[in-house]
Every structure is written in structure tokens, then in C-alpha cells.
What we know:
This protein is mainly alpha-helical. The protein is built from three helices and three strands. A three-stranded antiparallel β-sheet has the order 1-2-3, with no helix packed on it. 0% of the residues are buried.
Amino acid sequence: KLDIIRTELSPSEEYKAMVLAGLRPDIVLDISTRALAFWSYQVYQERLYQEYSLSRADSQLKQMEKVLTQHNQSRELELTAMRGEIASLKKVMEEYKRKYSDMSERLMERNRQYQKLQGLYDSLRLRNMVVGAGEREMQPQPGYRDLNPVMAKQAPPQRSPQFLSVSSDRDGHFFSCLEADGSNTFFQFNSPAKEAARPFINKH
Length: 204
């Protein structure tokens, strides 16, 4: 007895004409009944397999829907956070734009002041250059001498004091320093004769 029988599902016309030829009608009906029962069994098994596949696909679909819902919720939270961050960044950008406009206005004002000061500096420098050139032209040449007797001033001669004058008298001064008029004595030294004339006192 064979468990597996290979059957041609699309038999030829000759096979159809000869397979049941010569059999009694009850045998033909019995064969047809068994063939229909096997076909019904195959259809039932196919339906069970399809139902199993459908239930498995449904469970996978529900699981995927749950995962998709979780992902959507997380994405919504991320999008909400990103929208808040974008709003804050927009506020910061607006603040930076305002500061940039203020700094640009200040820079333009400083540039205008700088240009004004630069113009004043250039004008003052040119004026100083012109004044310096005029003063150099008015200054006398190096070889020029003023010969005007009225403007020329001469310092009066001064007498220098006499030092180390020697007296002719031995009893007079040995060295004397006189002033310009010669009236007062600045240094005075006694002669050896006067020193000898003094009495000698012996102290006991």
C-alpha cells in the first residue's frame, strides 16, 4: 500500500476517456465519491491553513499597530519638544537681529564720528605744516649776525678778588685775601717775629 500517490492534475483527453472505461456505474460513482471527498478534504485543509495565516497576520498587524502607536507618540513628543526649541531659537534669533541692528547703527555712528575727527585731524595737521613752514622761512640763516648796537648787550666787566697778595712789611700779613675794594682782611696770619715776642708761660 502506497501512502503517496502522484496524480496528474491536468490529465489528457485520452486518459479521461480510458481511465473509467468498462467499469460498472456503481464503481464509477464510488470512485467519483471518494475523489470528491478527497477534494473536499484538501479544500478544508487549505481553508484551515489560510485561517491560521490570517490570524497570525492579524496578531502581527496588531503588534505592529501597537509599536507604530508608541513610535507615533514618541515622535509627537519629540516634535513638540522640537517645536518649543524652534520657538525659543526664533526668539533668540530675533533678539540677535535686534542687537545686530543696534550695533550696526552704533557702528555707522562711530564711523561718521571717526570720519569727522579724521577730517579735523587732517585740517589741523595741514595748518600746523603751513605754520611750521612759515616759521622756518622767518627764522634767520645760520651765518646771519645782528649788528645793531642798540640790541646788542654787553655784560659789565667784574673785578675778580685778589688772592695770595704778599706784604712788604715783615710784621704785617704774610698771606691776605682782599675783597674787591681792598678795605677788609679775609685771612690774616702773624709773622714769626710777633709770635716770638709773646711771653712764654710755663704751666706747672
